[in-house]
User: Fold this.
Amino acid sequence: MGEITNPVASKMEGPSFDHEVTLPERPDRTSERRAESIFAAFDSADSANHAEWGFHWLRYCAVVAASVAVLLFAVAGINAFIDPFGIYRLWDIEGVNSYKPAIYHRVRLFKAYEVGRVQPQTIILGSSRSHLGFRCSHEALAHLDGPCYNLAFDGATTREMFEYLQHAHAIHPLKHVVLGLDAYHLIDATSFTRPDFDPLVLLQPHEFRAVRFVTGDLRLLTSFDTLRASIDTMEKQKEAQQNWFSPDGQRIGKIFFRQVEKNFLEFGPRAYFDEIDRLEVAFQTEGMAPRPGSQPAAAVVDPTQSNFAYIKRIVDFCVANKIDLRILITPAHAHQYEIARAVGASSSIENGKRRLVRLLSDVAGAHPEQPALSVWDFSGYSSITTEPLPPLGSRDEMRFYWDSSHFKEVVGDYVLDRLFSVFAAGQVVPQDFGVQLTLRSIEPALARERAEQEAYRVSHSEDVAHLRNLVNRAIGECSPAVFVRL
Assistant:
């Protein structure tokens, strides 16, 4: 019989070992490990390079920072020593830094720091007219409490006056303020700041002085502009001129005009007066000529930034801080008002006076517990403002005026006499000089001024015709633009 095969048993049989079994080879990782070691070496070297590069970079930055610090420290040291703007007054050495010509071109900056030195309780605010005309040694101001300082400067706008008022009060509480307004301050125009106005050197109410030290002192000390001024100061020591700034801030007219102002010296007082007339005409007529077939564009005035808005801020500030405020309208020569009339500004000036009187009346009604405020107007036609001019070619000075815009100190004394009711021995204020404006007196005063202007135009017809010709010629030649009186 054949062999019987158990199918179950055959299925249970394990694998046959009759043939050679080949196992899969294990991968060779030698090359991989070699590559990893190479990359690791590169990574280690790269990390070392980065660390070294970072170290060199930090050292480079430290060297640069140290160099800059040393440079700034050196600049600050030179500027503090030379002190070209008269800020610190640590030492004045003859032939080195005693003469400081830069202060005459940076009056706003100089006075911002002088206020800190003087710490006045009485200040005078205004433009170059007040800067020249009012002295703190006047009897009315000399007897007030504390020091007095003339804080007026050329071309001052009402906005700048307000900023300097706050600055002075932040340094030392004020008790008295004399505010000199020119006719152009009363015109409805935007009040802005001049290029040399620097708000960072001015203190604001409740501001920490350390802030001003950083934004003002430190910035100026490390400034290369200040360094240039320091170098210029050293170079010009041999050209020193007599100082025309008095310690109380007034510009001393008899020094400035008789020793410094070249045109006044070279051409004489009458020619200088005529030149200022021409400059005033050019200034007031700037941009008044329209393009052919068009009308001049009207200037858009933001009521919160207008001349009057800042006058109101000055009044409100003084009332809130119980500061005695005396307001006046300055007495320019009649030529200035004839130019204003020729350009059509008379009605704007009149309206400005009315608005100012209403403001002071409203303030008095709102604060009955405080003395009523008033304004004295010296800008009318009077024996002072209509002073005759010397003959053409004459080198004689006028009694009351340096030019058609700037009155002399004797006129400033008359103004302060009126303002403070002072009767100085041997000095009588002309009766027709100055009128106090109130709600009751404003209209009669304006009517009288118009009548006096007409009388002046008749008695000085040649002068008036000459000024009108200057205006007409300037309007015909000026470039078209928007007219804004500063």
In short: The chain is about 50% helix and 5% strand. The longest strand covers residues 176-181. Residues 1-23, 479-486 have pLDDT under 50 and may be disordered. Strands lie at 122-125, 148-150, 176-181, 324-329, 375-377, 435-437.
